[in-house]
């Protein structure tokens, strides 16, 4: 029996019961694939269910305000996915009359849809025989065939895509692609897979040569930068606070946050208090308090944020402030949302 037949047979016996696998409608398939970019299924599933309940059709998603979309997405991270999702929904609803492009090449033109996502949607929704290639596929193929190509190198994607295409049975594109992804997620996991129960342990080159944890090869490492954020929580005489919308490009675009001082490492408390005084001194500052001596470290893919929160009380009203109950309805990065829940939940 061939690799493909074994794999599909394994998938049919072991696949998880996921809602987007019960349909060929491209809308929920597209929604799930966007959500699962750089996200585990266990984390993405509740968000998928919330979105399908709020927006059962692409027209409903297109008609929603961006802030509602971002609020529902809150906590899932990589928020550009949510903005691209919303923009694409509008394009499909208003420019394509609610119909998704019917093939891989058409799907590839949608905002936020790359080669992997287009291949997944095309094969699952339409049965188009185009292979998916992601981290799971790199890992399964590199281990089974003993491939030592650095997967971060320029020619790796072409090599693995051609290999996956050669294995893909044209009449079973949907099952094969989903099987590759599921096998990598459940069986051929990144660290310490249980190869003793693997269906391929009699043929897998990595297992037979003791290289399971050495494959796939990835030499290029992501450079991580550290940033130091000081968030100012104003509490004016009426107990109201200020939030701002992040309009600049970069992390958390169009999400909300408290007034921010981004400082250098080692900036002392006197510098932060001078900044606070320059903003709110005219409103009669009565107290300034650092709420966390040890910064909250929020890790993103390329950045580690070291976050401190400051509480500032004023004796008069500050323009532009919001009642905490109103403030909570806005979309925030999850690290700020978690702070809000704890902070106003205890006052």
Automatic annotation (TrEMBL):
It catalyses: Hydrolyzes free adenine bases from 7,8-dihydro-8-oxoguanine:adenine mismatched double-stranded DNA, leaving an apurinic site. Its EC number is 3.2.2.31. GO terms for biological process: base-excision repair; mismatch repair. Residues 35-186 form the HhH-GPD domain. Binds 1 [4Fe-4S] cluster. The keyword Calcium does not apply. InterPro entries: A/G_AdeGlyc_MutY, DNA_glycosylase, HhH-GPD_domain, HhH_base_excis_C, HhH_motif, MIG/MutY, MutY_C, NUDIX_hydrolase-like_dom_sf. The keyword Oxidoreductase does not apply. Its cofactor is [4Fe-4S] cluster. GO terms for molecular function: 4 iron, 4 sulfur cluster binding; 8-oxo-7,8-dihydroguanine DNA N-glycosylase activity; adenine/guanine mispair binding; metal ion binding; oxidized purine DNA binding; purine-specific mismatch base pair DNA N-glycosylase activity. Coiled coil: none annotated. Keywords: 4Fe-4S, DNA damage, DNA repair, Glycosidase, Hydrolase, Iron, Iron-sulfur, Metal-binding. It holds the Pfam family HhH-GPD. Belongs to the Nth/MutY family. Adenine glycosylase active on G-A mispairs. MutY also corrects error-prone DNA synthesis past GO lesions which are due to the oxidatively damaged form of guanine: 7,8-dihydro-8-oxoguanine (8-oxo-dGTP). NCBIfam families: mutY (TIGR01084). This is Adenine DNA glycosylase. It comes from Flavobacterium cyanobacteriorum. The gene is mutY.
